[in-house]
Amino acid sequence: xxxxxxxxxxxxxxxxxxxxxxxxxxxxxxxxxxxxxxxxxxxxxxxxxxxxxxxxxxxxxxxxxxxxxxxxxxxxxxxxxxxxxxxxxxxxxxxxxxxxxxxxxxxxxxxxxxxxxxxxxxxxxxxxxxxxxxxxxxxxxxxxxxxxxxxxxxxxxxxxxxxxxxxxxxxxxxxxxxxxxxxxxxxxxxxxxxxxxxxxxxxxxxxxxxxxxxxxxxxxxxxxxxxxxxxxxxxxxxxxxxxxxxxxxxxxxxxxxxxxxxxxxxxxxxxxxxxxxxxxxxxxxxxxxxxxxxxxxxxxxxxxxxx
Length: 307
Fold this sequence. Notes:
Helices cover 13% and strands 49% of the residues. It is built from 4 helices and 14 strands.
């Protein structure tokens, strides 16, 4: 049972968030899910099916209760590297490498009277790419929101970059957030303890639609803080690869993508508070000429850090 003092404190917070407009930007919680009505772009995030494999020792429920008493400040770091061997005619192949790297400060506030909704503000992202980096300050102050399922896994991202920002910066921010949310580690609804393992399966649609399987181990629990070990494997749903930014398609001859990492989750926070994942893979794609395949090696890294 909640004590009288705690009840009064919570009520005070709710009242402050609901009546004082100044708390929109710097209050402990968000007065409303503004991103649902302010013209933000809305993007669905695939939910996952979770199957418990072993409950571990001394199992207990994992109840996620996002705090309305303080905002969460984190840095999201993502990097995607693609090294390609591109057909160059006369049987030759040309090597080409592209990388998109972004570090984004985020301040998240749970909606005061709705723990299934979170509003966030974007700080000034940074990048190793000098050309992109010059465009990123215009994103400072961009806003967005998240909707969560009953298990507190994100099901929808809403994003509203500042009007002053340009398309390359907007695209980089959106792709970084979507990529990170696609690798959210779902938690089981069953009670679990140290040593517990569970499997998460979701379908992720991008250039290739893949079935993503996560095998998760609860390495340790310290109160509401969980240390998770995560292994990831992805398998294409079909042989269709859509070239980003176009309707052109290639055939997937071969495909692999897998990796692992550790993620630290605080049951009182919406974003992970530490850790990350690294995935590596390769694919062979074929267009009109089966004798001229496009071969790509891919690496994706994701990290969450307190800020």
